[in-house]
Amino acid sequence: MNENRHRPLRVGMLTPSSNTCLEPVTYGLLQGAPGLATAHFARVPVTRIALDTGSDAQFAPEPMLAAARQLADAKVDVLVWNGTSGSWLGIERDRALADALTAETGIPATTSTLALLDACAAYGVSRLGLALPYTRDVADAIVSTYAKEGLECVLAEPFGEHDNEAFARIPPADVARQIERAATDGAQAVAVVCTNVYGAFEADRLEHALDLPVFDSVSATLWRALDLAGARPSWTGHGQLLRDGSLRAGIQCVLGTLLAATGADRTTFRVDLPEHGLHVDLTAGEALGPGVRSIRRDASLDQRRLNTVEWLEAERRTLVQPHFREAPHPPEALKDVYGVRAQMLSPVETGGALTGWISVHSTRERAWTDADRQAIEAATAQLTAPMAPN
């Protein structure tokens, strides 16, 4: 809205009543982006986390809708349920809640659990480490809930607390050690699933030590709220998600649209963007058709030295290959390991340099149509814009 253009974004947060962590942490995180946004809070009664009807009743929609109406009076730009109850009650509960909040107020809405799932999607995470303050039965319910969303979980031993106020009294050093224990057994990222636990200010240090993203619930909620409001947050000091998450989510969106438009089996984007931790030997994003094997974490090839990439460097135009019987030939691993039989590659340039490229893969030989070529060129334009220097 026009009246909002010259003021900071306003983020409306529905907050568990016994939570003492998320407000100061959110304020602290926002100091990294002065003038971008302000946070505004309304509390709803939540004091105990357990698997029983009394605990479940705390998360009924009516008190949240009432709080949302109050926040709407402040003309907030986005609403979030800043709690992780959907992680054990079911993702469908949170999706329905977000829809209800928007229907009630006309304001876009999300939740902490949905934000964590969005973070996993942005980073292509399929195996997630969990750091939790809850009792073991609640932790097991979270593992089961996430499994239904396609996430395998590595569970560090939870702290065993059920009093929501007590979660914030767990020392940050203990939270950090729990994160380290969750970063094992092939975990591709670790999530701190609770908005009343002090994990946000540990994330940046731990990511460097573990070489894995750390998705703290408070940070993830703020990131997704700002992204949903159109801010595309990006600042340093508090982990990859606040620095790179919106860029990665945008890449995933473009690749998913391209996959659908071409009916291909895989789309990927590779780019050298060191300030965002990206380099061409690992994909920055990938979209897959049903049953198609992921190539996302395979860094076994020197991508810049591939015949096809050298062709892109020289020609700077889309390479269209309905089959691989003519040069330039792709690496044997692409054919033998990943079953690719046809592809299109489109160069992404920044300042005259070949910064990266989009790939569209087919597991069968196929004649790429004009519509397919137009789709990859449109995706190239979309992904080139964020790479341009400010």
UniProtKB/TrEMBL annotation:
- Top-rank taxon of the source lineage equals Bacteria
The record's section on InterPro entries has: GAF, GAF-like_dom_sf, Iso_Racemase_Enz_sf, MaiA/AMDase, Peripla_BP_I
Q: Which intervals hold domain GAF?
A: 254-383
PANTHER family named in the record: BLR3294 PROTEIN
Please state what the protein is called. Answer: GAF domain-containing protein
